[in-house]
Each structure stands twice: as structure tokens, then as C-alpha cells.
Amino acid sequence: MIGDDQTSREGAVSAVTRLLVEDKVQVVFGGLGSAFGMAALPQIREHGVPYIPTPSTPLFTRTPEMGPDPTKSMVFHYQATGLTQGATIADFLVKVIKPPMAANRPLRVAWMYQDSPFGAELYRGFAERVKDASLAIAARGGGRVEIVAAERFRVGETDYRSLLTKIKGLNPDVLVPQGFRGETVAAVQQAVVDVGFDLKKTHIGPVCACADDPLYYKDLGKLGQGTTILSLYSTYAIPKGAGFARWAAFRKAYQDKYGTLPGLLGVSAYDVVHVAARAIERAGSLDRKKIIEALGKLEIDQMVLAMQGGKIRFDPKYREAAFVLFVQQMAWDDTVKELRPTIIWPAELADAKYKQP
Amino acid sequence: MDLATLVRVLTWGLVTGSVYMLLATGITLIFGVMKVVNFAHGELMMIGAFITFILAHSAGLNAYLAIFVSMIAVGLVGVVIERFGFRLLRGGEKINEVFFSIALILILQNALARVFVPRFREHVQIRTPYATEVVDLGLIKLRYDFVVLLVLAWAIITGLSVVLHRTRLGRDVRATSQNRVGAMLMGIHAERVDMLTFGIGAALAALAGSLYGIVNPFSPYTGTLPSIKAFAVIILGGLGSVRGAVVGGLLYGVIESAATFFLGGSWRDATAFVLLILVLLTRPQGLFREGT
User: Fold this and answer.
1) Distance (Å) of CA B43 to CA A163, A317, B39, B224, B226
2) Minimum Cα–Cα distance from B264: chain A residue
3) pTM to 2 decimals?
4) Quick one: which of A83, A87, A79, A32 has its CA closest to A323?
5) B53, B216, B256: best mutation site toward chain A, by most A Cβ within 10 Å?
6) What is the pLDDT of residues B214-249, one digit of tens each?
7) Which residues of B touch A151 (CB under 8 A)?
């Protein structure tokens, strides 16, 4: 059963209501964006249906009602949360970008993020990690990270020029635009072409893992050279290591079937179908409570996305799965006339080191 | 704030304001003549943007030439909407016209989404031959696209003003706008004027959409917010006043840009509406009176 959220909160509520009331589904999964999935959460709670969201906001399982009490929680979060992504971006910036750009002074970082649960939690993850003492130790040589701007924009915004003009005036070393794919492409293009950000002086990225999709590489174009993207699934690159062995076969099968390569959200949805199926198998029933119980105890080998420890499991406190994250840098490929990524961090997964433009 | 930054913020405001100006001028022309509020004006804007996009992207036509084809096509769509929609509702309850235009929003939006989303997914942008070319204006470097946008928007508005004030057609439009019955008694074919005015308004929406789509990405749903703002602009400028739509549109764009710069992106939409409320409280008729 498919419910179309029509990229709106109202659409999500109406689609999920239909799935629950008319179709009487046993499990709900997916959701295109955090705001839309969150809007449908009250209906899901009311019906006590297991839900496996794939957007990034941690609020799916960290709201008071969804807290650690297993009798209340029917939500199992299968996506790298905004908190994790934000914290990983902080680590990357301190360890990789700070040394060449601000070795003896604090790294000046400007955030520009979507005004939604998705954007807010990514920023919160970053800001909390920046305050972390261990990161300060990693950032040797003149302080750590200074957040010079944290600017919000509305969902679906297409014109970032005034905001970028303000940020440029603050002389940041790094600009981190956090939005959906279309928003990110527009923000990066306008930063470089219209507002005149010089990529030699200001690093742009890492942008959100959710932007990793074939259209991102195509739409961003040559202007995106040197920028970075945080990923847990790369459209084109494959990290080193056994944990990523299935990617090539998965990509080929997907392309053969649909004529295009999958993006992160497609891969997440593919994995979640298997997670739900295994939970139902183990529950031995379509009873919603038994499926919730089975999901809570589930521990299976990872599917396509690489998991910490190689296993899909939901931690007992927040019922979140833990993914392996990495950062890629964009370079222009003249043969395909599109951007292509190289994995640059962490070192154990990387093919190359970060290249300053 | 240094001078270059000030010029940048003003420029972004003028660019956005020019799009509002075109949209608002179309709405106010239609309202002035027909006393009809077409809430689906934003959807005509998006049809215009998508026609230009398709002509430039798939047919390989120069995007700036494609704009004129798009204006003609959407102008004809406007004529059809007037002839087989609003004209049939004329004389009935005003609420019928309101619901008709709301229905048009849903029909046109979903039709566009049905055609374009499976192929292009989230957003598209119109590429011109000068997409990365920059002109150095001293204080700022500006993409050619912005220069062309400003020149084209102003040339069309100036041309429209000449038509409205120096031609027989313009005289008929102004006469119908001021006194429909009187105009008909003087031999003016009011229904033909309605049709032409709706066509011109729709063509202006197509121009606004195409120019917007050259400098910003867009989707079938993008037209809603600019059209709401264009309605605010005509209330600000004065209902039925073309001069009000021009001044209001530019003012709105500049205030929006300044609010984003000084207060942040979350205030972008709110600040301009605060201005609107202030104007309505102090000058309920708007900045200019009807018919100017």
C-alpha cells in the first residue's frame, strides 16, 4: 500500500490516515521528510502501529511520548539522525578542514539550514558536538570551531542570495548549507556564482547525506567542484571494506530494473522492507504488538547500508539504528560531464585525501 | 554594512521585486477591468516557466526567445480561461468566481505535477546561454541573467504603460476599468476588452514565471507563494492601480531582501506582510488610488 504525502504535512496526515483506517496496514515505513513523517506521528501512535521512519530527525523516537518505555514506543528509526550527522560534520571539519584553512585559529563556520525538525536537529547535533571537550583536544592549535552564523530558511526556499550576502560579510572559513537536494543545489550555486564565495577561501560543505542522489551530481554542475557531502550511501563511490560489498550488485540490479541509480532514500526504503519482513517473520504473526516487540529485539545482518558492527539493531534507549558515515569530495568528470565523488574521510574508508581547491 | 553589500541587498530585492511587479500588474489589470480576483495567477506563472523550460531544455531554443513564445502560449491559455470560465460566471455570486479560481489552482498544479514530476522530480531551472557569464558593475559583479531580467521586466512594463496610455486599446481598457456601463454605451466591446486584458495579465504571469525560473529553481508548486505576495502587493499599492503594482512590487522585494539580511531568512515572508498591515491601518486605500 502506498501513501503519497504530497510533500506536505497535510498530505502526510491524510495518506497515513488512509493507510491505517481504510487499508488497515500492519507496519508503516518511509516518509519523504522529517516534518511530514512527524506530522503523521499522532495518527500512528493512536493506532499503535509499528512505524519505521527513514527521514533524519531524531524527534521520531526522542519526543517524551516516544521515550525509552517499550510499552509506549512503536517507532524504530532507520536513518542516520540529524544529531549524528551534525556531530559527524563537526568531527570532519575539525580534523580535515581546519588544518589547511585555520591551523592556528578557530575555524569560522557558518550554518544555513532549513527551518524544520530536519534542519534544526542537524544544527543541534553540530552545535552540541562543537562544545564537546574531546573535539577541542582534536582541534589543536588555536581554539576549535567558532559558529559565526546559524541562519534558517523556510522549507522549499529557492532564493538564498540575501542570506548568503549576509554570511559572506562574516568571512567564514566554511559554509554548511543544510537542506533537501534542490535547496542545497540552489544554495551552493547562488553562493558561488551570484554572491561570489571563493572556494579557495571558503569551503562549502559537507552538505546533507539526503542530497546524495543522481540528480545532485547532475544539477550542481561544475560549480560544485571541491565541495563535500556527508554520506551513508553514495550514488557513485564505494567505500573500502567488506561492509560495502553489496553496493555494486545492488546498484546494477536497481539500474537494470528502474533505469536509474538509487539515492539514499531509495536505498533506505529497500532496507526497511527487509527489516519489516524479518520482524514479522520473527513475530510469527501480523499482530501489531508482536511486531513491535520483534522489532525491539531484532538483530540481523546489515542489508545495503553499512551499519556499525555490521548488524541492524535498534538501541534500547532511543530505538535508533547506527550507520557508518563518511565524507566525499566532488570533482568534475569531463567524460560524463557531471560531478563525481571521491571518499576522503574517515581514512579507513577513503580513496584519497581532501584537496583544497 | 559596506556599500557593496548594500548594493547587493538592494539588487536582490529589485530582482525579486521585478517578478512581483509583473505578477501584481497582471492581477491588478484583470481586477481593474473585470473586478475578478484570479487566485490561480501563480499557476499561470508556473505554466509559463515550464513552457520556457521545455523549449530551452528539450527543443534547444534560446531561453530568452522561448520566453516570448511562452508569453503568447500562456496569454492564449488566459483567453480560454476568461472566455470559457470567468465570463460564464459573470453576473452570478462573487463566491462562484473565487471557487472557480481555487479549483483552477488545484487543476493546473496537479496537471503540471503529473507531467513534470515523474520526469524532473523536485526542482528544475531554466538555463540560458549566459548562465555563468558575469558583468562587472564596479561595486558588484552581476550575472548577465540578472541584468537581462531587470531590463526585460522594465521594458515590458514600460511598453504596457505606453499601450495603456497612448493607444486605442489602452483607452478602451482604462474606460472599461473606470466605468464598464459607460464604456459600453460609448461603443466599447467590453467582453473583448475582458478577454484581451486577461490574456495580457496571463502573458505577464508567464514572463514573471520565466524570469523567476531563470534565476531560481522551481517546481509546479512554486507559484503559490509569489502569487499570494503579488496579491499583498496590489493591496499595498492600491487595488486596480498599475502604478501601485509597480511601486508596491519593488518595495515588497526590497523590504523582503533587507529583512532577510538584517533579521534572517525566517523573517523574509513575515516582514513584508507586517508592512502591508501597517499600510492598511494608516492608508486603507493603498499607496495609489484605483485606475492610476
Assistant:
1) 27, 47, 9, 7, 10
2) A151
3) 0.87
4) A79
5) B216
6) 999 998 888 888 888 888 888 888 877 888 888 889
7) 264-265
